[in-house]
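Morning, I've got a small favour to ask if you have a moment. I owe you a coffee for this, so here goes:

…
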Amino acid sequence: MRRLLLAFNLLPFGLFAQPGWIGMDFTFVLEKDGVEVPHAELRDGKDYSFEVEGKGARVFGDRDPRYSLVPFPAQRSDPMRHVDTLWFKIRHRDAGVMEIGFPPRAGRDINRYYLTDHLVVPFAPGRVMVTDLTTELHVTGTMTGLGQWWNGGPTFTLDATCGCDTVRNVASPLNGEMDFRLRCPVAAVERGHPTAHLQFTSDGPYQPDLHMRVLGRLGGNGWDLGKQAFTPTRQRIVGYQVLAVDDAAARDTVYGWDRLGNVVHLSNLRPTAKDSLHLRFWWLGGGEEVHITHRVAPTFEGEQLLIFEVQRLTVDHDRKSGYQERELDVVVPPLVPGAYSMHLVYVDPDGRAAPRFDALNGQPLMVR
């Protein structure tokens, strides 16, 4: 009885056990007019003040000194109790008020998780939802397979894109080391987690544009990709920063990209009987006219050959133009399910050779 009376006496003072709620923390870097505002400037109270749910709030330091942290009341922001949109206000002494909304995370048919960690807030008076902001993705590692700039071989620089942000020359030309930051939208969600779609793009003179797409979760300490070979296909981060081929969606592949020669882009690599094949033939040429057709022919072994006939026409245009990048798109309508092998036939009129795409010759294709 004495313990019960003591508990009732302590209730007005708020000295009772909490039920284990987990409050939401918002970490952010604030920009004004495109310039980062230092954390110390946010804390001194001269130009900025803050409110959480209509009450004055302080900003705290984060493990990354560039960022600031604002906690929300645990009894309203716990993932199981967050049923209302919560609001965070940033008030500038002269420029007005910006409000950031945090949608509910509890309830039926509600996306229960979105990123609140290390977001970028461009200050602008008015209202915005936290899911409309971007986060900064820190990517490190080493990319091989880019060529060596001093040996005259196939060499290209590497650019990276996420959302609308692009960073150029992300890999060192000497050893391929990467250490860069770029901004990704936080609204892309896969299996309940914000996901980044990062695209590496090759860039160089007389080189086809090749794309290596990497899918992975946002948040945490960024991506350490380790040592990877540039491969123009779709990759997914699985486990602990391990890249694996992504077969969850339609996947492209490229033949001949790692050789001195011409390139063929193929989409879809794993087609069904309802999918058309899209092939993009790339080569360095002049003003020659080239025509590419296709047909299917059976073999004695029961396999099907998908034959591409590359024909150089007798008429040339602009012979003085020198070497230039050329492309031709070929669409193959849906094929009957089965195993195919791709082959090429060349037609060279008057001894003038059509462009060669030997890396595609003999490649298998399975139609499901």
